[in-house]
Each structure stands twice: as C-alpha cells, then as structure tokens.
Amino acid sequence: MNILISGGSGFLGSAFSRELMTRYRAQNKELHITWLTRDSSQAHPDGVNMMTYNELAKTDKGFDVILNLAGAGIADKRWSDERKETLLASRVKPTESLLEFIARSSSKPKLLVSGSAVGWYGTQGNKPLTESSGYETDFSHRLCDEWEQLALQATEYDVPVVIVRTGIVIHPDGGMIGKLLLPFKMGVGGQLGDGKQVMSWISREDWVGAAIFVIEKHLAHSNSQTIQDASLNNVLTTSSNTPAVVYNLTAPNPVTNYTFTKALGSWLNRPTIFTLPEFLLKLLFGEMSTLLIDGQKVLPQALLDAGYEFKQPTLKQALEEQAS
C-alpha cells in the first residue's frame, strides 16, 4: 500500500502510521507512508516520507489511499469569529489541495478517507444517532458538513470516498484525556453541568483499528462499487455514480458525563467532588460550551454491521488498557 496522510503528525495520524507500519512489517507486506506537511523539516518516524503542499502540487506520484486528517482542534480555543474562520480554513485548504492533486493525477487513488466529527449531527441530546440519522444545524454541523461536502467532490474524479465521523478520542497521550489529567490528578476534576449529557467516545486504539479496517475492507474489493453496501445504511448522496459512505468512529457504549467523570477519577484514584455549573461553562467558553454541556449519543452502527470488533468497547477498558 502507498498511502498519503494529511495531518500525519497529529494525535490520530501518528498513531495510525505506527500501527499500520507494525502490522505490515509483521505480515511482510509492502507499505509506503507519506505525510503531507507545510514544514519539510518536521520530525517524523523512520520509514515515513515527507511531502510539502508545494511538492504535492507538482508531483506525478500515485497513491493507493489518501487519509485526510488535517484540521485545527475544535476545542482548543474559544469560538471567536476569527477562530471559526481558522477552524474552517484549516480543513478546507488541505482538502482543496488534495482535490487539485486528484484532479490532475493520471493514476487516481483507489480511496479517499476524509475526517469529520460527530458534531455533524448537531445537538440532539440523548437521542440515539446512527449513520442514517439527520442533523440539527449549529456551528459544529456547518463546519463538519462543509468539510465533508468538499471531500465528496473526489467522487467526480471517480475516486470512492469514506467519511469518518469521530467522537471524543480517549488516550492518555493527548486529546481530551491529556487535557484533563492535570486537574483530575490535582483533585479538582468534576462533572460538567448536571452530568447527564451523553459523551460519544472511542479509544485511540479502536479509532486506529477501525480506520485500518475500513481501508482494507474497501481495498479488498477489485470493483470499487462494492464500497457501498445497502444493508449498512451509510451510503451518502453525491452528484456522481462513484460510491461514498460514512462511518461513525465511536465506541458502542457511550456514557454520561457523570459516569465519565467517576471513571476517570477512579482510574487516577482521585476525588471528583467538584461541579462546573452550566452558567459558568457558558461564561468561560461562550458558544463552544455546547461541546461540554450538550450531549450526543452517536452509535457505530455501520462499523458493527461491517464486522469490526472493538478491542476496548467500554470506557474502563479504554482507560486501563491504553495506559498499561
């Protein structure tokens, strides 16, 4: 496999690259990984090639798969108008560069896997959401939808597309857990609001495993049209006959914020007696507080129906096994 990854050095892209290299070496299979970057001097693992966006605009190299993960963290800063523009641009510009490459490439990729988030569904409380569910319009939905619709344009060049809508990724190395470790270790961690909001999460190990599963599942079919399986109810509508599907990358057991708080406190052996009330969260984070206050119960129905077996289906496993 020859794979190009935007956002390869990030929290997910780096873990994906390591696991893919480990698996392919163990199976004695050929693998070439290239990270797309704006800085060619960026640190990277042995065995990973680097390509700048300027080089991408000129290269005639072909790739079997493109994994598009580039994008600024949605929860890293308060959502000012300027920050919203940054969040959108950090997703749109890399995707546009990839589309330009695909358009002029004489050897088209066999698959484009493009990132998104469960924020696509908008705020819907505790209502179970699968790949066939609708959405509520808010900033998170608009951000994800614009990113998805742009990536789906690859189907116009006969490149099948898989959209992966990711939940909260759990791993001590970073992400949400990385940000919470210090306050929880200091004994000042606690639930957010009333704690009843549902959190749709996935361990980083399962995110990586699911992403590899989806890629290999679709590459295994010589006819790209078999990417679509009507029984999975995850087919996306495009202007092209080239197939496109979506997978929710979440664990099958979402939890309330209260349960999450208690599990994290128990794992760290620290008290969780504090509560950040809703009004204070809104004061501190503004519109972005919706990520903390409003729940989403997003289920990985298509992934389960396709046969993926989760290694860490419960939060307890995700916390304990990944830190061991």
From TrEMBL:
Pfam families per record: DUF1731, Epimerase
Span of domain DUF1731: 276-321
SUPFAM superfamilies hit by this protein: NAD(P)-binding Rossmann-fold domains
Positions of the NAD-dependent epimerase/dehydratase domain: 3-219
InterPro entries: DUF1731, Epimerase_deHydtase, NAD(P)-bd_dom_sf, SDR39U1
Record family assignment: Belongs to the NAD(P)-dependent epimerase/dehydratase family. SDR39U1 subfamily.
NCBIfam families reported in the protein's UniProt record: yfcH (TIGR01777)
Listed name of the protein: TIGR01777 family oxidoreductase
